[in-house]
């Protein structure tokens, strides 16, 4: 008979939360500086950020191998490592992204960690939290409303309805809204035009919030959003619609990071939530700098595999934010290696599949080393892992020149992460890592794309559609060729083909189209059939959730 484990939400409910004032005190924050959202959540004012202290403290990035659809536990490892660091006497804070309601009710479930390595209050973090996503959604859709209102009232900017790039957003997986026609119903209901919805984490407003330095910078970036082109092919920006102040007003509280706690009552800062397969995939610069201002060690994560989130964290966020990551933890799971080794049921032990799948890990190790950092592997342990499979990973990692440490945060919390915490601290203290971005922003657009495709994905070359090449020429003509690159690519493979598991070789990547986010400040080549509005699976996670008459929630994980 298999052992019955408590669900994540049952574990979360078993822990008594500490008042947020007590958590703030651990960071040296006087309660009068907090902006409480109930008893267990609070906003942190931006004036607590101290650039001098940031330089003295240590930033640790958690990333992963190419994941399975179930995810490999980067958030869980990040929370557990933070608890482990505190258990060995280090002052540490975890800084994470906010969950999106789309995945929560879709296939993946919540994103507050798991087992005995969670951030709490779990339900509130996974659901509406402090309203940041709602504010981002409203700011995005305010700009959409202003665009359509301008078209309705004489269109003095001469916007070309065929070349409006801005889309509406909502924080839900709803494939029916990907491509719509708006403005139907006669002349009193607007100008008919093609439009569509992205999911909120794919909004440029989300990207801007997570890259802004302060409120003034946020306002400037919002004004720089490229709305579309006019009849003469000239750019029209959000500032031309006088939208930036109103949008900033909606985001004046959302720009402030949120303070909560781990199950072991250590500080956790949660803020922003762009996806890594269609955006930059990391929490806000403000949140990371807040953590580094208040803690000796900050543990943060970047979405999906290291080819997506970590690449963007290191090439974009770290450069924009003048951040210096000193250590990288690469999360590896036995089940993911079984998957990349070709096993269909990756929950069944299979040493042969693990061996076949390990080249995927080797590629990620090589990639991280290209940034001047030697990673440490965290083997995120699951109940059906075997000792022989784990032993193979440890030895294979040694052969690849890195250490692999068993991570048992899911079952043991911080106690199960002390070995990993000590290893990471020793690596930082050795001062052997020297972070360097992979490319220079001033390089030509196609040169930067090729650099990422060859160096990170292992591709031979990059192919472009005519539409993509035309857009690149437009971007160069507008003077934005110096911006960094955010590749929009499947998270299921190192290549742009989700069916190519393991470590693909002898392939090209195809850039179908290119977008530009002039407000956030990056160029987005879209590889393959990537979509910015997901759909729900045949059996959404929402079907397994319930709430009783007293308001108690179950089935949320």
Describe the structure.
The chain has 557 residues and is of the alpha/beta class. The strands form 6 sheets. Strands 1, 2, 3, 4, 5, 6, 14, 15, 16, 17, 18 and 19 form a 12-stranded mixed sheet that branches. Strands 7-12-13 form a 3-stranded antiparallel sheet, with no helix packed on it. The two termini are 24 Å apart. The mean pLDDT is 95.
List the helices and strands and how they pair.
Elements: H1 8-14, H2 20-26, E1 35-36, E2 42-43, H3 51-56, E3 58-64, H4 74-87, E4 92-96, H5 101-105, E5 113-114, E6 117-120, H6 122-126, H7 132-152, E7 159-164, E8 168-170, E9 180-182, E10 193-195, E11 197-199, H8 204-211, H9 215-223, E12 226-230, E13 235-237, H10 244-250, E14 258-262, E15 267-270, H11 285-294, E16 297-301, H12 306-320, E17 325-332, H13 334-340, H14 351-369, E18 376-380, H15 387-399, E19 404-407, H16 409-412, H17 418-430, H18 445-457, E20 461-464, H19 466-478, E21 508-517, E22 522-527, E23 546-547, E24 553-554
Parallel strand pairs: 3-16, 3-17, 4-15, 4-16, 8-11, 17-18, 18-19, 20-21
Antiparallel strand pairs: 1-2, 2-14, 5-6, 6-14, 7-12, 9-10, 12-13, 14-15, 21-22, 23-24
Helix pairs in contact: 4-17, 7-8, 7-10, 9-10, 13-14, 14-15
């Amino acid at each position: 008979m298999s052992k019955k484990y408590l669900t994540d939400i049952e574990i979360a409910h078993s822990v008594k939360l500490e008042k947020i004032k007590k958590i703030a005190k651990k960071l040296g924050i006087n309660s009068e500086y907090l902006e409480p959202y109930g008893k267990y959540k609070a906003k942190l004012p931006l004036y607590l950020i101290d650039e001098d202290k940031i330089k003295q403290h240590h930033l640790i990035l958690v990333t992963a191998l190419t994941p399975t659809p179930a995810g490999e536990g980067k958030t869980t490892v990040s929370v557990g490592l933070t608890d482990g660091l505190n258990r060995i006497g280090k002052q540490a804070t975890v800084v994470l992204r906010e969950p999106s309601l789309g995945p929560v009710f879709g296939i993946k479930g919540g994103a507050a960690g798991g087992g005995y390595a969670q951030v709490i209050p779990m339900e509130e973090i996974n659901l509406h939290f402090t309203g940041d996503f709602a504010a981002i959604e409203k700011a995005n859709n305010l700009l959409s409303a202003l665009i359509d209102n301008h078209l309705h009232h004489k269109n003095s900017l001469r916007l070309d309805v065929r070349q409006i790039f801005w889309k509406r957003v909502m924080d839900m997986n709803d494939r029916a809204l990907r491509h719509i026609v708006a403005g139907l119903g006669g002349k009193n209901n607007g100008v008919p035009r093609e439009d569509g919805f992205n999911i909120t984490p794919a909004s440029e407003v989300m990207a801007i919030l997570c890259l802004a330095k302060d409120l003034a910078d946020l306002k400037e970036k919002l004004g720089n959003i490229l709305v579309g082109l006019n009849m003469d092919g000239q750019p029209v920006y959000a500032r031309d619609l006088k939208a930036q102040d109103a949008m900033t007003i909606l985001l004046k509280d959302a720009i402030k990071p949120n303070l909560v706690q781990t199950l072991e009552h250590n500080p956790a800062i949660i803020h922003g939530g762009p996806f890594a397969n269609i955006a930059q995939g990391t929490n806000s610069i403000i949140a990371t700098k807040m953590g580094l201002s208040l803690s000796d060690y900050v543990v943060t994560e970047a979405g999906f595999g290291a080819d997506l989130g970590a690449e963007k964290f290191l090439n974009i966020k770290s450069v924009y934010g003048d951040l210096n990551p000193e250590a990288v933890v690469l999360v590896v799971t036995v089940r993911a290696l079984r998957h990349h080794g070709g096993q269909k049921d990756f929950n069944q032990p299979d040493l042969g599949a693990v061996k076949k799948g390990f080249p995927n890990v080797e590629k990620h190790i090589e990639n991280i080393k290209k940034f001047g950092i030697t990673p440490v592997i965290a083997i995120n342990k699951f109940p059906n892992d075997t000792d022989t499979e784990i032993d193979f990973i440890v030895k294979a990692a040694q052969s690849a020149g890195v250490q692999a440490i068993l991570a048992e945060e899911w079952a043991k919390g911080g106690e199960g992460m002390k070995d990993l915490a000590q290893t990471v601290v020793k690596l930082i203290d050795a001062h052997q890592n020297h972070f360097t971005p992979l490319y220079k922003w001033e390089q030509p657009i196609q040169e930067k794309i090729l650099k990422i495709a060859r160096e990170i994905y292992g591709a031979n070359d990059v192919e472009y559609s005519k539409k993509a090449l035309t857009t690149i020429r437009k971007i160069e003509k507008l003077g934005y060729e110096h911006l960094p690159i955010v590749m929009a690519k499947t998270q299921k493979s190192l290549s742009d083909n989700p069916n190519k598991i393991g470590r693909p070789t002898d392939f090209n990547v195809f850039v179908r189209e290119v977008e530009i986010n002039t407000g956030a400040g990056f160029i987005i080549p879209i590889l393959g059939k990537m979509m910015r509005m997901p759909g729900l699976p045949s059996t959404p996670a929402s079907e397994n959730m319930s709430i009783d008459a007293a308001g108690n929630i179950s089935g949320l994980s």
